[in-house]
Every structure is written in structure tokens, then in C-alpha cells.
Amino acid sequence: MNLGAWDILLNACLLVLWFRIWNAQGDGDFGWRTGCLWQATDAIFRMLRPAPRSMNERWIAATLFVVLAAAKTLLFASILAGTAGAQWGLRMGFEQVVVASGSGSPPLGRLAAMTALSFAVFLFMLWSISAIYLPRRAHPFASQAEGTLRELSAPFSMLPIHWRPAALLVLGLAVCAAARFDWSAASLGEAGGELLQPWTWLRFVISTLAAVVGLCGTLQSFVMLLIIGSWISLFSSSEALHIFCREWLDMLLGPLSRYPLRIGFLDLTPIIFFFALGLAQKTILPLLAGIYYMLP
User: What are the tens digits of pLDDT across the range 91-126?
Assistant: First the structure.
């Protein structure tokens, strides 16, 4: 049993609370999609807010974030302890860590570290997409897709543009370094010695680049869903679905969206972009892998 799907789902739930931490005061400036998300969670926050004395919503969101992360850790601990063949794996470029069911449940400390590491990888992927597709500051003519991505990727999207690559690199290096530990006393000294080697950090840089390139696969899946959704909208006359798919495709295609290649009513540009993403991944990743495994 692979826990990857559950991991993604629970990380998405954690992202909702992360969004509330960085957007604690809903002032009506959200796009309508993130505004709906804010309103949907606001009922929970009103219920949890103490009646005699109003508690800061940011602290409520942070508390719920910690509670959900702890619940995820305990859930995965019980699954790994009671299910034969269960495993939970994380990958950051060429660095990976796997926890599998064995003779007993893995230590809770290690699973708690895995929970934090998993969400850090999730944020890295989201922030990488933000760094690629949000090169400018917020402006009043941004599309709904850009606004949604900007609001969900806070606080990264709040940083000055010239700081974002450095922040992304620091996060990637930190995740790669944390992946070298299994959080046992024996491994701390061994992994700590590895971190003193300059080649180790060069490997981490390459792994961080590989993780960004690996996003091509994720974007491929998203583009395919948007293509299918746009086709369904054509035959079902669903204007809302068509607008949603078109906004996100236009953002992902970037300048290519201005020069569509059409056959009749069918726009082939997203399909070409889909195959271009796969070609880029298959071309660049082997080169980075060769450099990574060539290092001492």
C-alpha cells in the first residue's frame, strides 16, 4: 500500500490552513475562487473563536495546522504499523527517503519529521510554479488563475521578485539536507559529517534543479486535465468550465497562448505544449542525473 495519494490529499488540506495563516483577515481582495475558499473555512473559524475574547485568526489557523499535521502523523503511524507492505516515500530531485512497514511502527519522531518534510516538498513545488508563472508583482489586470496562484503561494509571492530564486534555493537545499537524516541518534552524526563536504551541497543544488525540472510531469498531468475539461465544455456548453480551463491554460502556455495553432475549432497549442513538457523532462533530467552521480 503506497501512501502517496493520501499524502497529497492531506497536504492539500494543510495548504488550506496555511492559506488562512497568511491571509488571516479576509478583506474582500481575494479572487472569487480563493474568496470562496476563505468563506468556506470561515464558519469553522467562527465556531472555534472564543466568545468572551476574540482570538487572533492567524493563531487559530496555526493551531489547526499543527493538530492536522499531528493527526496525519498518527494516521500514517497506525497504517505503517498495521498494514503489511505499506510505505511512505518522499522525493526531492535525486534525494529520497522511504519509510516502510516492518517489524514495528517507525518512531513517531521520524514520522513527524516526514510530515514536515512532506509539506515542505509540497510547498517547494507550489512555489516553483509561482516563481515561473508569477514574474511580476500583483496588478489589477491579472487573471483569476494568476490571482489564485498568488494567494495560495503566500508568503513566497509576497517576497520581492529578486529574492524569490534565492528563497526557493534555500528551501530546496534545506529539504535535501533533511532527507539525509532518518532522525535516529546514529544517523545524525553520520549525516552531519556528510553535510560538511562541499560536494554534498553541490549534489543538493543539482537535486533542487532536478525537482524543478520534475515539475514538467506534474504540469503535464494538469494540462491534460485542462485539455479534457475544455473539450467537455465545448460539447456540454458549460461556460464556467470553459472559462476555468481557458484561464489556466492561457497562464500555463504563457506567450504561446497568443499564437494558437488551430484545426477548425480545435486548438492544438495545449497539446503541443503537453508533449514539449515531456520532451524537456526526458532531455534535461538525464543530464542532471549524469552530473549528480558523477560527483564524488
Answer: 898 888 888 776 556 778 888 888 999 999 999 999
> Nearest 5°: CA angle at 216, between 214 and 222?
125
Residue 28 has pLDDT above 50, yes or no: no
Instruction: At 79, list the grid cell.
Output: 497504517
The predicted-structure confidence for 221-236, as pLDDT tens digits, reads as follows 999 999 999 888 878 8
CB 261, CB 268: distance < 8 Å: yes
The continuous run of DSSP H or E covering 267 comes out as strand 266-267
**Distances in whole angstroms, Cα of residue 6 to Cα of each of 153, 197, 255:** 21, 36, 35
How many CB atoms are located within 10 Å of the residue 215 CB? 18
- 266 sits in which H/E element: strand 266-267
Per-residue confidence (pLDDT) for residue 250, from 0 to 100: 87
Same domain, 280 and 170: no
CA distance 274 to 221: 9
Contact present, 202 and 163 (Cβ < 8 Å) = no
What's the domain count of the chain?
2
- Residue at which a domain ends, from 145, 169, 196: 196
Give the percent of the chain with pLDDT over 90.
Answer: 27
Number of Cβ within 10 Å of residue 86's Cβ equals 17
Which contiguous run of DSSP H or E holds residue 88? strand 87-92
What is the pLDDT at residue 107? Answer: 77
Same domain, 39 and 146: yes
From 196, 212, 234, give the residue that closes a domain.
196
- Report in angstroms the alpha-carbon separations of 240 from 32, 97, 232, 247, 251: 13, 41, 11, 11, 17
**Domain co-membership, 209 together with 132:** no
- What does DSSP say about strands 95-100 and 266-267: parallel, antiparallel, or unpaired? unpaired
Which residue do the cell numbers 488551430 mark?
A: 262
